[in-house]
Amino acid sequence: MTLDLSQPRVMAILNVTPDSFYAGSRMSCAEAVETRVREAVDEGCDLVDVGGYSSRPGADEVSPEEEWRRVKLGVATVRRLAPGLPVSVDTFRSEVAARALDEFGPLIINDISAGELDARMLATVASYDVPYVAMHMKGDPKTMQSLTDYRRDIVTEVVDYFRRRVAAMLEAGIRAGQIVLDPGFGFAKTADQNFELLAGLPSLCADGYPVLAGLSRKSMIYRTLGTTPDEALAGTVALGWECLRQGASILRVHDVREAVDTVRLFRAFAGRGV
């Protein structure tokens, strides 16, 4: 399985969780999951990202078995309703990744820890030869927001981090063409650092790996505006455009229709047509 990123893509968030930071994305019953998948497909998403473990700041631990139950529900629903749609599994556990791949065949693995929270993850991804999204984070969801000190500017830190992690991925056998990088907006970063990182995305893109931007309804938007995640759609659209302008290949979003429209308008503006 490979990802076609010849043009920007929209990744729909499917949180099969009761505690994700944005209340509008929380769903734990089969009916709610099915409604969300149908909506995302109808609105034109290019792929769906299924998560069974909330990575919001301070999130509680979820057992591997419970995470797998949630992931299985989400992926099975997408496979049933949209068999040809690429599916991503948002997990840092190699056990969950392997079970999903064995159960459902080729999937994308989206790992918030770039392989650092589970030493077996990189080898697992390599053995299945599937796309791998590696995100920058320090610590884990419980500790990350206490780890926002960086020795140098954050763009340099993140670029250097990914160079080290990509080397580890390649050494583990993951093909270069399967690697996608996620700068980790909101993970071990202050609001100012998030905006600095957004402005520095071209430095991350310069190494030739596609970049996923996930800032949908995050605190860098709603805290800056003095609002809430529920009121952060306009800010998400605005920064989504900037992510595309700075070189991002994938927008990971809660609001699919608005992101699809943003991509279409960006492509038209950039002279690529619609």
Please give the share of residues in helix: 40-55%
Structural class: alpha/beta
**Level-2 CATH architecture:** Alpha-Beta Barrel
Tally of domains: 1
CATH superfamily: Dihydropteroate synthase-like
Rg, alpha carbons: 17 Å
List the secondary-structure elements in sequence, H or E. EHEHEHEHEHEHHEHHEH
Mean pLDDT: 92
Task: Note the quaternary state here.
Answer: single chain
- The dominant shape is globular
Low-confidence stretches: none
The largest sheet has its strands arranged as 6-5-4-3-2-1-8-7
Measure the end-to-end span: 26 Å
Description:
This protein is of the alpha/beta class. It has a single domain, classed as Dihydropteroate synthase-like (TIM Barrel), CATH 3.20.20.20. It contains 10 helices and 8 strands. It has an 8-stranded parallel β-sheet with strand order 6-5-4-3-2-1-8-7. β2, α2 and β3 form a beta-alpha-beta unit. α1 crosses α2 and α9 runs parallel beside α10. The radius of gyration is 17 Å and the shape is globular. The model has no long low-confidence stretch (mean pLDDT 92).
Summarize the structure.
It contains 10 helices and 8 strands.
Secondary-structure map:
Blueprint: E1 9-15, H1 30-42, E2 47-51, H2 64-81, E3 87-90, H3 94-104, E4 108-111, H4 121-128, E5 132-135, H5 154-172, E6 179-182, H6 191-199, H7 201-205, E7 212-213, H8 219-225, H9 233-245, E8 250-253, H10 256-269
Helix pairs in contact: 1-2, 2-3, 3-4, 6-8, 9-10
Jot down its keywords:
alpha/beta; 274 residues; TIM Barrel; 10 helices; 8-stranded parallel beta sheet
